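Re: [help] complex structure
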Amino acid sequence: MIRLFLLAISICTATQLYANIPYVEKLMSKMTIDEKIGQLNLMPAGNIVTGEKIESKTADDIASGRLGGIFNIKGREKIEKLQKLAVEKSRLGIPLIVGMDIIHGYETIFPIPLALSCSWNLEGIEKSARIAAEEASCVGIGWTFSPMVDICVDARWGRMAEGNGEDPYLGGLIGAAMVRGYQGNFSKPTEIMACMKHFALYGAVEGGRDYNTVDMSRVRMFNQYLPPYKACVEAGAGSVMSSFNLVDGQHATANRWLLTDVLRKQWNFNGFVVTDYGSIFEMQSHGFGPIDKNSVKALKAGTDMDMCSQGFINCLKTALEKGEVSLHEIDQACRRVLEAKYKLGLFDNPYKFCDARREKEVVYSAANRKVARDLAAESFVLLKNNQNLLPLKKQGTIALIGPLSQTRNNLTGTWSVAQNPERYETLEEGLKKALKGRANLLCTQGCNLMSDAEIQKGAEFGKTINRIDPAKGKAEALKIASQADVVICAMGECADFSGESSSRADLNLPDEQLSLLQALVETGKPVVLLNFSGRPTVLDWESKHVDAIMNVWFGGSEMAGAVCDILFGDKSPSGRLTVSLPRANGQQPLYYNHLNTGRPVSDSETQYRKYASNYIDVRNGALYPFGYGLSYTTFSYDNLRVSVHNDSVTATVKVTNTGACGSYEVVQLYIHDVYATIARPVCELKGFQRIYLKPGESRDVSIKIGRQELSYYNSDGDLIFEPGEFDIMIGKNSRDLMTKRIVLN
Ligand code: NOJ
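Output below.
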């Protein structure tokens, strides 16, 4: 009874914390219907656009109260000017909310989110969001379109770079950490509003082709795709962006079940919902009729703000006159937008995010760069290190070869809209600095990113990397390799191979690069591959022939220094994959936490079996599995103990650093629900600990999980615990695990 009462109180406080704010109510009582609808209109105001360019008559619209917010405009002074228009020229002086895609940093750029997730460093990730907010909040930005927490299991989708990999549990923890990092509790001028996106299921686009359709069962949604969004709501995300795709046959943007029943009623979300870029407009192509009808549907479903379609601003007043929407529905959306501005403190001080003094001190400061460098080093995943080729000694002659070796603006990867590449170091510059003349460095581009034949006409990728004559490039590369003691290849994808509108069907290293890499391996010199990527790529040939491979993703503005920290052993690599790296393109979708089949073939089976669930040409499992990564030392796992106390299970294992250097290790706990009413995955991450062990040091690591982690969602979104047998597994990745079976009543 007391518990129920407390629960009721906490729900009330959560939903009513900001509802019916007297200030907002009073303001709304003075607003005309046009002004209310104006608050629901969001348009880009600068040169950073992500769809077709729309002429926005920005200044007029702001002054006449036809815009509630603007986004993706860089420059404090420009933003200050537009805010001044809103405050001084519009009738009621309502300030604008100003957004930007600060996905992994403002000018201090952190590794792409997929890379950051591989650090498994939640504190560090929260800190990255905090720094992003500190930098953005002095140059006019009060709202970031982040975190992006779309689960994705299909590496063809370029936007995998923006998310946290394939695991819903880890994805939720990371999303929540980012929300906390951005928002704090809105008490400081450095705390900005998060926008969790893309709600929902955008990562499940068919074939991994961007903007494609989605179809999935509710059981899969609730268990595999929705948990990270829910975690962000629980962490207090102030806003949510709906996705471009269908959810259960309805467009997410006009999906009442999703935006109202699940998001608000089941999860108690009390912020505002914004569409993605032009979503209401695009509903027509999905087959939902004209924009006026879709604007009505979107509002009624629970959308509050229209990004770029101009459906709300152009159609809602007429819809109101025709009785298709009610004043209450328009008021509700307007109230939510104004409440967000209130939470941000914009009514107290509309210029609170424009702070010239702080801008000088904070943006790209040495302290911020240090955090970015450390996190970049933690995000790299060492995949192979034959005969401990790495770390390298700073001696002799080192050849640095490849299309990514001398580029400045490819290191930050996708969505670095505020980046300032002139301030960043290329890999070549970083290496030179680190070597301090103690070794001779030779460097050449060697090849193009890809040949013309490998890319569709019109897809202008990799423009930032010079095009060279491939034959001459190869000859030069082989020449410097012949003079070197070791060859470092900076190869893979360039920044615009991933991110929005950058899906790929072939995930292998492009032909020109592979041909050069093969030629370099044939020289017999030791070769290190630094694999740049915004997604899992296929490294099958490389894994057999290259001595050392490190996935460096896109490490951000401080990437060059971070690469050197690892290459020369100042730090031991500790990144662990949060995605499965495939053996072949055709394995997509590929993910470790899959359901079983009636004719299972396990990862360890190396032989094809007729009439079993396998391919005739490639093994089932990942080339490098989820959770995998090497360090410059090794860790042993012994003596797994599992104890059960009422509602919780504690697994303890002894982990020992058996090598010669100190390093972080990520101890991972997985479960398998052996029998259940709904089929459960073969393995699910439910806990982990990132620990540092000195050489020779041992530690008992205990990870505790509760009923919640042992439960699953049914198709209504209820969390169900079913007593019975569970496998509790602990190990260094999702493949190398020790198991104990327990029975829970
Ligand atoms: C479209 C993208 O899908 C979304 O992630 C982004 O926040 C908006 N454009 C705004 O730039």
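Residues 1-18, 48-55 have pLDDT under 50 and may be disordered.
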